[in-house]
């Protein structure tokens, strides 16, 4: 299995991502680290521990990370993810507490201890990842790739041009992009498209198995449907986990990406230079400011839906 670590702000769709990572035999989920984003960091820790309990994975180390972005103030997305940050389903409290170690320490330890290079999957603002890279830069020698949910080539969601995770902590995202390891950007352009059809969601909801049923509830809450008469639910962050398991389900182009850091309406935008074509002039070689990133432009929706259902209904 591929060793992975998820850094998340659980979060309805972060929960979907955790369920996939726990259930799929192709992944070895070595740790989960939490950061403020969809809700406050203590809420994220609680939600994450509860999801792992429900998924039957009570032993995966979980650590609390940054409680605010590097520069920005705390902002949440409770209007999307509910008051508890995860749909307000009234899920039971977690059966354990988070590790005594902080997220950066746990990330360093698990990355360096892994016998094979680790793939990092950030599905949240990149604050923990930026702190890790600045505190322990040596970790990059045992990172295979970073596959992050964030950014948008076309339209944003937090603002007309900025995606929530990048908008929430733009400086941290800029540090992530310049980590010096291979990076895949699983942005809104593909994120929004992977929707599980209504009948599948209803089947999951009716399951007797708690993890499968939770996946159904989360999908039903998430919407939106492509077809209003048959509401399904988007995989959201779980699509980034699919991208690690099955990269061939994505069409990516290696393109320069820069984050707009200036104050004003474009702050947090991922400026993807689509003028670039592989093999062309020096502009395409990537610089410190404009690293080359494998940007997901297309996704095979059916393939990822099948992958997801196959894992959570095991
Ligand atoms: C991203 O922001 C969060 O609300 C979701 O969990 C996802 O990671 C989408 O912009
Ligand atoms: Ca998230």
Structural overview:
It is a single chain. By secondary structure, this protein is an alpha/beta fold. The chain is built from twelve helices and eleven strands. The chain has helices at residues 12-23, 41-54, 78-81, 103-113, 127-135, 164-168, 170-177, 188-191, 198-205, 210-222, 238-245, 301-312, and strands spanning 2-8, 27-34, 62-64, 118-122, 143-149, 183-186, 195-196, 233-234, 250-259, 270-272, 292-299. It has a nine-stranded mixed β-sheet with strand order 3-2-1-4-5-6-11-9-10, with helices on both faces. It has a two-stranded antiparallel sheet with strand order 7-8. Helix 1 links the parallel strand 1 and strand 2. The two termini are 17 Å apart. The model has no long low-confidence stretch (mean pLDDT 93). Bound molecules: beta-D-ribofuranose (BDR) and calcium ion (CA). Calcium ion binds at residues 8-9, 11, 13-14, 37-38, 123-124, 237.
Q: What's this entry about, in short?
A:
With 314 residues, the chain is of the alpha/beta class. The protein has helices at 12-23, 41-54, 78-81, 103-113, 127-135, 164-168, 170-177, 188-191, 198-205, 210-222, 238-245, 301-312, and strands at residues 2-8, 27-34, 62-64, 118-122, 143-149, 183-186, 195-196, 233-234, 250-259, 270-272, 292-299. The strands form two sheets. A nine-stranded mixed sheet has the order 3-2-1-4-5-6-11-9-10, sandwiched between helices. Strands 7-8 form a two-stranded antiparallel sheet.
């Amino acid at each position: 299995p591929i060793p992975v670590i998820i850094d998340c702000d659980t979060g309805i769709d972060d929960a979907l991502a955790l369920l996939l990572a726990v259930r799929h035999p192709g992944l070895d989920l070595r740790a989960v680290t939490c950061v403020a984003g969809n809700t406050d960091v203590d809420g994220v820790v609680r939600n994450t521990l509860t999801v792992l309990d429900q998924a039957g994975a009570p032993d995966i180390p979980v650590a609390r990370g940054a409680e605010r972005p590097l520069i920005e103030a705390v902002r949440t997305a409770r209007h999307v993810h509910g008051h508890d940050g995860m749909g307000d389903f009234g899920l039971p409290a977690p059966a354990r507490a988070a590790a005594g170690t902080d997220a950066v320490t746990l990330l360093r330890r698990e990355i360096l201890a892994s016998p094979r290079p680790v793939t990092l999957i950030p599905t949240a603002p990149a604050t923990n990842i930026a702190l890790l890279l600045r505190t322990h830069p040596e970790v990059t020698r045992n990172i295979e790739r970073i596959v992050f949910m964030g950014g948008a080539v076309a339209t944003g969601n937090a603002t007309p041009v900025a995606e929530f995770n990048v908008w929430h902590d733009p400086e941290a995202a800029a540090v992530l992009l310049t980590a010096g390891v291979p990076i895949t950007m699983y942005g809104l352009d593909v994120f929004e498209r992977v929707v599980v059809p209504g009948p599948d969601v209803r089947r999951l909801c009716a399951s007797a198995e708690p993890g499968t049923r939770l996946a159904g509830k989360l999908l039903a809450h998430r919407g939106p449907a492509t077809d209003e008469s048959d509401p399904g639910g988007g995989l959201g962050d779980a699509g980034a986990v699919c991208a690690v398991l099955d990269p061939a389900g994505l069409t990516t182009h290696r393109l320069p990406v820069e984050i707009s850091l200036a104050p004003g309406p474009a702050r947090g935008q991922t400026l993807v230079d689509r003028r670039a074509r592989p093999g062309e002039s020096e502009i395409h070689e990537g610089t410190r400011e404009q690293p080359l990133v494998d940007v997901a432009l297309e996704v095979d929706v059916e393939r990822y839906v099948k992958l997801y259902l196959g894992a959570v209904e095991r």
